[in-house]
Amino acid sequence: MSVADFQPVIGLEVHAQLLTRSKIFCGCSTEFGARPNAHTCAVCLGMPGALPVLNEKVVEYAVRVGRALECRINPVSIWARKNYFYPDLPKGYQISQYDQPLCEHGGLEIDGEDGPRRIRILRIHLEEDAGKNVHDPGGGDSLVDLNRSGVPLVEIVSEPDLRSSSEAAEYLKALRDVLVYLGVNDGNLEEGSFRCDANVSVMRKGSTQYGTRVELKNINSFRFVQKAIDYEIGRQVELIESGGKVTLETRLFDPVRGETRSMRSKEEAHDYRYFPEPDLPPLRIPAGFVERIERELPELPRAKLHRFTASYGLPAYDAKILVGDRPLADLFEQVQAVYRGPAKKLSNWFLGELLRLMKEEVREVGALRFSPAQFAALLQMVDSGELSNNAAKDVFAEMFRTGRDPREIAQEKGLLQTQDTGAVGAAVDAVLAANPGEVEKYRAGKKQVFGFLVGQVMKAMKGKGNPALVNAALKTKLGD
Amino acid sequence: MSLTLEEVRHVASLARLSLSAEEETLMRTQLSAILDAVAELSQVDTSAVEPTSHAAGEVAPWRPDEVRPSFPPEKALGNAPAEVGTSFAVPRIIE
Amino acid sequence: MGPTDLSMLELGRKLGSGELSSVEAVRACLARVDRLDGRVKAFLRVDREGALAQAEAADRRRTKGKRAGPLDGVPVGLKDLFLTEGLPTTAGSRSLESFVAPYDGTAVKLLRAAGTPILGKLNMDEFAMGSSTENSAFFPTRNPWNLETSPGGSSGGSAAAVAARMVFGALGTDTGGSIRQPAALTGTVGLKPTYGRVSRFGVVAFASSLDQVGPMTRDVPDCAALLQTIAVYDPADSTSAPVKAPDYLAEIEGGVKGMKLGLPREYLELPGMDPEVRAAVEAATRALEKMGAQLVPVSLPHTKYALATYYLIAPAEASSNLARYDGVRYGLRVEGKNLLAMYGRTRDQGFGLEVKRRIMLGTYALSAGYYDAYYLKAQKVRTLIKQDFVDAFRTVDAVISPTSPTAAFRIGEKVSDPLAMYLNDVFTLPCNLAGLPGLSLPCGLTRGNLPIGLQILGKPWDEARVLRIARAFEREHDFHRRSPPLGAA
Ligand SMILES: [Mg+2]
Ligand SMILES: [Zn+2]
After folding, report:
1. A273 conformational bin, left if phi > 0, alpha if psi -120 to 50, beta if neither
2. Which residues contact C341 (CB under 8 A, 6 or more apart)?
3. Which ligand lies nearest the alpha carbon of A95?
4. Domain limits for position C107
5. Is residue B17 part of a domain?
6. What is the per-residue pLDDT across B32-59, written as a single tens digit (0 to 9) for each?
7. Is A422 helix (H, G, I), strand (E, B) or coil?
8. Do C341 and B71 touch (CB under 8 A)?
9. Which of A24, A125, A282, C154 would give a disulfide with A152, using CB separation of 3.0 to 4.6 Å?
10. Omega of the bond prior to C154 within 30 degrees of 0, cis?
């Protein structure tokens, strides 16, 4: 027996920060990177007498997420207190949702190992984030910074529908893409604005009885998701094979050693003593609210992917890269709307020159200096023969750097190919007159000489001859 | 309803109260008596009754997503029993 | 007759006419505090300079013709769980002994806007848990009517200060009777408004779904005027209701003619009821009948479960509300060898026995395996208790009962028997469970010269009618004008 004889069963719990300006229950800023406790007030410090008031944007964003993930939005949901002691939890409880969450019973389609699969979503609920404890590596006190305390989160809980670590990673990426598309999350695992816990169990293939699950915490990069889950699957299988039993526990993934380890056994089992939050009446969604948000939902990544392959005729590979970054996809469509040439040609420019330069210099689409119309004009100049492909790359680099007009750049650099048929004609005449022997050979059937003659004309025109025009003029004069 | 000493200790640890042995015994007696007294609720038929968790407040207000001034550090940390810089300091947390 | 014998509204009129100054009023209060509070021990802190400065400001406003309202310049006191910026707020607890609030609560802000100088912070049972003020971590407060007895609680300091005329009025909070019971035991008027009428923002929480701020005064018109000042919708409290307060004084003299007053039969049958209290309350209902009210027997069948219901819900909420006193950000910290030890020792030494008892009870009621049987069950019975009132109010305008089953009891008498102490609240706490307004006013004296309180419960948002009934009774009796023997001259 081996890992291959077992079926992993995986469910993910994702905590995603909602990109509001202020916190969920107070007016403190959610901005990252401030001095410790600079963004705190009576409410998010858990001062005596302080009370929570809900940020409307949080509801709007959560409903957006709920509908994008095909959930039912409960018209009434209940706030609950999750009670536990920790220095980063100022009130001694987290305001969350328990019995009646805001969103339930949705799903997200992903590319599974055997084609598209819908991963069911059990629930999405709202809650406040805790602060941050910093442990002095020198062994002194732990320091508590409550700037994150009260930052709004959605917790998205999938059903245990994932069957491999790669599916889990696929789901996580798809989920992140959706949230980023919705404009509610920045998808940043490293900074903690998108965090993932995994519930992992294994059962023998053919069995319908789920094994005991283990909760994996601290999976803070896409790379680690697969690693952590694979390690845990291996550990569980080995345990069962050697006659042991998997115990219900929480394990921490250690990215340095690439393994999971049991969190120091707690003094007592978790008993969060959830009960309805008396300081907050139930969350009631007004009539028409969900419908309004639904109308404003943007096109989601999977739908866009289908459209990019179907209506632009792009290869799936290209479409996936473009759609993976919503502003990039938007820019593609804006340029294409002006350009109107072959979409694949534009896509080549995006995947080639644009992304290459973005990696080197600017990074974000929003910070690009040129306009879609300028990009389109550049491509049109190539198509019409005014610019050679190589010259266009030079022009593009300059346009990327300065945002200046491509034609202006080409002119300045002397890269424009002349469109003047008179000048071409004169150059051809001169070349033919200067090479009577070669003309003779050509007329005698030695067609290879044509390339030489073209070269001579181009040389005479110092590279500014439009190859198409030169070809045409030569052919006419040679009597073809 | 009589509580065991272990139950008293378990509840005290959930509540982060380090009770003295005397207090544990006292709590055991008194909590048991109170639980006996409140046990009368089991006589009430509530099979068709919804719980009431809020006395009023059917409609809670939502506030606009606007940033308001936070406390200056002398207010945020003004009552702190221990601090380092602008952070609260606690005995080292061992994971 | 000195200035401290005036009611709030009377003093307000004299301040308006310039016959008296606010500084004189504050000085008169301070003089009484100096003379009496060594024995009564109502104050945890007297803010002499602050009160005088506020009085001077009030007097300046008057000379400029810019009085803030009818109570501008009238000194008041605050139960020590109202957060006051720059002043200690202890909630009667060691855990907050050194806590200086970084902000003013909403009710305090409203008082400041109304111009009432705040004379100081008044003693209370720790975190409002108790019915005698003996659970204060600092000292018990004594009843000005008899220093051997308790003023009740938890707002005992507020009640005693008002009764002894050390302040003109005070704010208290009422979670299960903590305004009304001490009002009854000290011969003063106390009102618990409808849940949601007064903001809880900036008030140290005991049990959030039951707590309500209210006025404590010497007579009913003062009660109306002080309520008017604080009954303001507050968007900072999500349970504050956007219901506009009427003019409480406008119809207060309208009488009870034609009103239907419900007498719950279950209340008078309760064991432990003092016959003198029963007699006084019966006499009061007959008096109201004589004034033209119609007495209607009503039934509140689930009322007998209110005590058990309350002693599950309130401790459960409290166990969570008091989790924040962990020694991390403010308040007492007792160092320990590690974090767990720090938590345990801080909370063990920060809290008194009654608070620990309720935290334990509440934690137990919410814990895995017991939630349904205790907490959830109590919430369901709460629904039935609430429904009893809805049914009763179909036929009556208000419900009349004793406030407390006994007059003031001796200090030390019940403190070691929590269940006996809890029985004090048997008439007052159903109203908190149902979220209704309830008022207590003096309606008699025992042979031992201790005040007896009459409780009037109204429909939600119907404080105006409750006040009107109370005023009708008060107008024809002089119990509210009797002052305790202490320092009468
Ligand atoms: Mg969560
Ligand atoms: Zn804040």
Report:
1. left
2. B18, B91
3. 1
4. 3-255
5. yes
6. 999 999 999 999 999 999 999 887 657 7
7. helix
8. no
9. A24
10. yes
